Amino acid sequence: MTKSNLLKKVIPFVLLIISIPVFSQQNAIKIGLVDLFKINMSYERAINTNRSINVNFAFYRPRSLPGFLVPDEIDDKSLKGRFFAYAIIPEYRFYFSKKDAPRGFYLSTYLKYSNYSVKGSDIISGDLYNVKGSFYSLGLGAQLGAQWIISEAFTIDWYFLGVEFDRDVFAIKYSTDSENPDFETVKNTIEKIYSGIPILGSYLRKLTGISTGSNYIRAKVPLYLPDIRTGLSIGYAF
Description:
alpha+beta
């Protein structure tokens, strides 16, 4: 399934959530506090006394790619300055409190779509290559958390244990205007990039599936992996 098809499925779902009528004025807008490099906002809407819908949107501000992810084989370090990422997480919550949602301890199920990308350039065998790397993930998970509403206005949402299973795809593409690209050397560079990824490196290198065209070489590796989710946010209830 392509990224555009995934977004076509996620966006109508988010619009449906926003259009759901509420039994009372039980809404909350929150901002995450965990990652200073990430803008993490969510909107929660109660749909009855003990259930709600929460939609989380996360965006990473463009920043340098962490140095340990850029191997020495990349000559042009402009690759480090073009990193961007976003995630969308719709969530269905069940509250256990005797008080009306959205307050108290809760159990939720959620979907997650995230996309991380980096663009830059690299010089290999004297030829300039445009480089585009990406990592995108589609996951399904369950979450335990608790939310407090203070003075009927301010919220603290602590989602302390989330477990999910993801389908992840690592992809990287080198393209060039050179008439005689040295794809064999580029292939070796891609394998070194994959093998340099912490924890998963040796596994990715073994699975690298490489395809070539007249002016590009591309590697795309799908993986199925577990993940955890935790976080803390504060906001305003109305």
